[in-house]
Design a protein that fits this description.
Elements lengths: L1 E4 L2 E2 L9 E6 L2 E2 L13 E6 L2 E2 L5 E2 L2 E6 L2 E2 L7 E2 L2 E6 L2 E2 L9 E6 L2 E3 L8 E6 L2 E3 L8 E6 L2 E5 L6 E6 L2 E5 L6 E6 L2 E3 L8 E6 L2 E3 L10 E9 L9 E14 L3 E13 L9 E5 H4 L1
Parallel strand pairs: 1-3, 2-4, 3-5, 4-6, 5-8, 6-9, 7-10, 8-11, 9-12, 11-13, 12-14, 13-15, 14-16, 15-17, 16-18, 17-19, 18-20, 19-21, 20-22, 21-23, 22-24, 23-25, 24-25, 25-26, 26-27, 27-28
Length: 283
């Protein structure tokens, strides 16, 4: 493997089409302001490098990146690339990871608007992420022990498994399909509208008007804090600990909670039936 150590590059396509290269302690910045440093590269390892120029990793196949920093100026750093791993990196560039597959992120701290659009097979372990429209239209997602914050997350995603995460979000999981969330904190308004096969297990859910228009929704051993007007027009099987502030016009299924502050079945209710049970009233 060719080694490139302690260099500075600022020209266009500085290391274009590299194959079998180890790049260490290099800086990609300078007056030439060149783009696409590693475009069309294969089998590269990048360690302790600083990226300040645009589009460094496009159309790559096989990139291992560790202990690197990506400044805001390194916008859209990963597009159309496969088999990319990042470990212990800090990334502040917008539109990171688009149309990529086989991505592993481990203990990275990321702030990137429009992160992870139309990606396939992406894993996140540890670290933190801040983004709007996070993982839009992506599929095959695994997240564990990660803190996420930002609006409009997980929209139109498919085949997702999330474990032991904190999700500070809003309008999350809209139109999502085949999603399971385990042992996580899910905070935010309008959770899971129009979702299909969304399953929440031992989760702490909070926020107004959650889980409306959902199809085949399942809640197992969850809590719902400050959740009013819940489950409107949803087909749902929910077992909730504690109180739900209010339930409004669920379409079908069963809802069980210790207490329900208000059950709203008004003139807009559809001609289906949902069984609603309060455990404390039946005790």
């Amino acid at each position: 493997m060719k080694k490139i150590i302690n260099q500075t590059y600022d020209e266009e396509r500085a290391l274009y089409a590299s194959d079998g290269v180890l790049c260490e302690n290099c800086t990609f910045a300078g007056p030439a302001d060149g783009e696409s440093a590693f475009k069309e590269s294969r089998n590269i390892e990048v360690r302790r490098c600083d990226f300040q120029l645009r589009y460094p990793f496009w159309h790559d196949n096989g990139a291992s990146i560790e202990d690197c920093t990506f400044a805001a100026a390194s916008r859209a750093p990963f597009w159309y690339s496969n088999q990319v791993s990042m470990k212990n990196c800090r990334l502040e560039s917008v539109k990171a990871f688009r149309e990529c597959s086989g991505v592993i992120l481990e203990n990275c701290n990321i702030s990137s608007e429009e992160f992870g659009w139309r990606c396939r097979d992406i894993e996140m372990r540890g670290g933190s992420l801040t983004s709007s429209y996070f993982l839009f239209l992506s599929e095959g997602i695994r997240m564990e022990n990660t803190h996420f914050s930002g609006k409009y997350s997980f929209q139109y995603v498919r085949n997702v498994e999330i474990r032991n995460c904190v999700l500070d979000t809003k309008d999350a999981f809209w139109h999502a399909e085949n999603v399971t969330v385990y042992d996580s904190v899910v905070r935010g308004e309008y959770l899971g509208w129009y979702s299909k096969n969304l399953r929440l297990v031992r989760c702490q859910i909070s926020g107004t008007q959650p889980l409306c228009y959902a199809e085949n929704l399942v809640l197992e051993d969850c809590t719902m804090d400050g959740c009013d007007l819940s489950f409107e027009y949803a087909s749902v099987y929910a077992d909730v600990k504690g109180e739900i502030l209010s339930v409004k016009n669920p379409a079908s299924g069963e809802i069980t909670a210790d207490r329900i502050g208000e059950i709203i079945l008004d003139e807009h209710r559809r001609d289906t039936e949902c069984i609603i049970t309060e455990r404390e009233k039946n005790a």
